[in-house]
Amino acid sequence: MRKEKVLCTLEEIKVISDPFRFKILVLFNEESGSLTVKQMAVKLKEVPSKVHYHVKELERIGVLEIVETKEKGGIIEKFYLPTAEIFKIKKDIGILEEDEYEKASENLISIMHEDFLESMKSKTKGEKKQLNYGLTYLTDEEVEELTELITGYMKDKEQRENAKPYMFGYALFRKHDHEGDIGNGSES
Fold this sequence. Notes:
This protein has 188 residues and is an alpha+beta fold. The chain has a domain at 2-124: Arc Repressor Mutant, subunit A. The chain contains six helices and four strands, in the order βααααβββαα. The strands form two sheets. The chain has a two-stranded parallel ribbon. The longest helix has 24 residues, at 98-121.
């Protein structure tokens, strides 16, 4: 498994931004090994045919791959794993239409929001939770630097003894005031 895979085409972005496909990928963060379509279907409480279709789409763009096959009762079971630990969307893709970008962004945000709300409701004793929110003022260069710092830090963390899996998300966006201007109105 590679450390990182960059999604560079409109097709890859459309495929991975589907909410159900994102849920399939999240399963691999919760599990320590490979999964069959049937195992995924059980965990997602869905029919295997639906899961199979979406797994095939993720496999087609190189996000999932078959890592093992076993024969069981005359049927070949295929075991899948993600091809990378981290998937990134190329920043300068430049081919997304505004409405396609908005739809892909909304899908990813709604999935992360759903997972976040579910984890915040969790009552597991001793479970660590962290939520930060605030306002800061950054130059475009500082935004790039902060993004590189955060992704670099998270990218270097691997499975190891005493480390537990945590979902993380990172959102940084321009603040608009009530009159539609950006920031405090001093922008030109």
